[in-house]
Specification:
The protein is about 40% helix and about 25% strand. The strands form four sheets. It has an eleven-stranded mixed β-sheet with strand order 2-3-4-5-6-1-9-13-12-11-10, sandwiched between helices.
């Protein structure tokens, strides 16, 4: 078997099918009007009708809710489990689910003490010395009730409620479980894998199903189970506008690419880890997440720029981070390449936490996965680099049929243009035809009068048509693009540092020329091999 040795090989020749899907989502389920002290005061005054704003009367609501949960478990013969410290709740769910026979329902209820935001009452004093209650936001350790459920559409999920005001909840679901159930309803044959599809009869149809998961389906899940489960707030409170909303606390966006042979993926992934230990550097993180990274200045990007290789058992995984967002890649169950972006704070990308922003978040997550593979493909595949080189040096034909020549590398004129871009990148207001003419003339050692405005206009067209500069709207000024900066930095360094040094070695005496000595050793080895096999002339 011909084993893959690069990302390009695997993606082009060894992926049988791929599926993009929202994976695990962790959502806040909360009442917006009860998340701040003034909202609680309004609830106590206007809804409960109490004259004094204090958290003391809220204890009655807590007691009533706790009794409702216990009565609900007893009436429906639902297993009750008090979680112990260090106990894996997912393992308990798997054990309980194995003996659960209904198509949907509450599998069990768990209870655990956890820290949560809450309100408390402080005693404060007026200027005359008299005291009054004052509500402040705080945190405390209270009981949380975990409702582990099985839904006909979403499969296993849980929602946990804090037992103390404002009774915030957390919802945990998995998009792959939802997609698998929708595929089954649509009559699409598939083989399930943990949080993925191992085999699919119609990959395009499954991808359409995965693309359909959005805020509407998640809102419907929440509304459905809020009606089925004990809820802290009464019907009167809901009628008064105290209703639960949903926001995104954490979301995972995965790309699963099934491979034709496990050994292919293993060898591939070993190469990826070896050659991409620098993927966490700022410049590569900026490419992956399409964000401008500032390492210096007054407002540097707050992030840990690092790569990590984590080994669990014998399965390594590659990790990179941007602010609170992480991306990881691993060989899933020895059968698939899994690339996964986890967004832990939507504000990393200037997007609010509301569930309605899920389409924008999925675009960021799935694009980051693709960009990581793109960075790895560029690192491994010289064909992509050759294509980019031809885009720079080959002519460009416009829609009107006009041919605009490319930049011929090695020519003083082209090198001067690229060097000028590095200077003009620092000009916040851009540069003009005259600026370019004067600077390139100096770089080429020419009298400024030797270059005409027409020649510089020709050079500006070449730079603009190849994406190295762009025109400032409504002006005759130009600015250097990000592509122009990266291209100019690379090619000027090669021209100024690598080529002169290599050619100097080439001209040096044999005894001190490492390049020529290495070439001679290689040629001697080839000649010896030819002689041993009777191929010498």
């Amino acid at each position: 078997m011909n084993l893959a040795r690069s990302v390009a090989d695997v993606l082009a020749e060894h992926v049988t099918f791929e599926v993009e899907c929202i994976d695990r989502m962790y959502c806040n389920v909360y009442v917006p009007r009860l998340q701040y002290a003034a909202g609680l005061v309004g609830y106590v005054h206007h809804h409960l009708g109490l004259p004094v704003a204090s958290t003391a009367p809220l204890g009655q609501i807590t007691d009533r809710y706790v009794k409702q949960v216990h009565a609900f478990a007893k009436a429906n013969n639902i297993a009750w489990i008090d979680f112990t410290k260090g106990q894996r709740k997912d393992d308990v769910m798997a054990e309980q689910l194995a003996s659960f026979g209904a198509p949907e329902g509450v599998v069990f209820i768990g209870r655990a003490q956890e820290k949560t935001p809450m309100f408390r009452t402080e005693k404060r004093r007026h200027a005359d010395g008299s005291s009054y209650p004052w509500i402040v936001k705080s945190t405390g350790v209270v009981n949380h009730f975990y409702f582990y459920c099985l839904d006909a559409d979403f499969g296993p999920f849980f929602i946990k409620f804090g037992s103390y005001f404002p009774y915030n909840a957390k919802l945990c679901l998995n998009g792959h479980h939802w997609a698998q159930r929708q595929a089954a309803k649509a009559g699409i044959c598939f083989t399930a894998m943990d949080n993925a599809f191992a085999a699919v009869e119609d990959p395009e149809a499954v991808q359409q199903i995965c693309d359909a998961l959005g805020p509407a389906q998640i809102y419907a899940l929440v509304e459905k189970w809020l009606k089925l489960l004990p809820e802290p707030l009464t019907d009167a409170a809901r009628d008064a506008g105290y209703r639960y909303d949903v926001s995104v606390l954490q979301a995972e966006f995965s790309l699963t690419q099934m491979l034709d042979a496990p050994v292919t993926g293993r060898i591939f992934f070993e190469h990826v880890i070896r050659d991409n230990l620098d993927v966490g550097r700022a410049e590569k993180v900026g490419l992956i997440f399409d964000r401008q990274i500032r390492r210096r200045g007054r407002h540097p990007t707050p992030s840990r720029f690092r790569s990590r290789v984590v080994t669990t058992g014998v399965t390594p995984s590659l990790h990179a981070e941007y602010r609170h967002t992480g991306i990881k890649q691993y060989h899933k169950e020895g059968r698939a390449l899994r690339t996964e972006t986890t967004i832990n704070d939507t504000w990393d990308f200037g997007i609010g936490k509301g569930l309605g922003n899920l389409p924008a978040l999925r675009e960021i997550g799935f694009s980051a996965n693709r960009r990581l593979l793109g960075v790895q493909r560029l690192d491994h595949d010289p064909i992509a680099g050759t294509h980019n080189l031809h885009q720079l040096t080959d002519p460009v034909v416009t829609k009107t049929g006009t041919t605009i020549p490319g930049l011929k590398l090695g020519q003083p004129r082209s090198h001067a243009l690229l060097s000028a871009l590095l200077t003009f990148r620092t000009h916040l207001n851009g540069f003009t035809n005259r600026d370019l003419r004067l600077l390139t003339g100096q770089l080429r050692g020419l009298n400024p009068d030797a270059l005409t405005a027409g020649q510089t206009t020709y050079d500006l067209r070449r730079l603009k048509s190849h994406g190295l500069i762009e025109r400032v709207p409504h002006s005759h000024r130009y600015r250097v693009t990000d592509t122009g900066l990266r291209t100019a930095m690379l090619l000027t360094r090669v021209h100024d540092r690598l080529l002169p040094t290599a050619l100097a070695y080439q001209a040096a005496p044999e005894t001190s020329n490492r390049l020529r000595a290495a070439a001679a050793t290689y040629q001697h080895a080839v000649d010896t091999l030819a002689k041993q096999n009777g191929l010498a002339a």
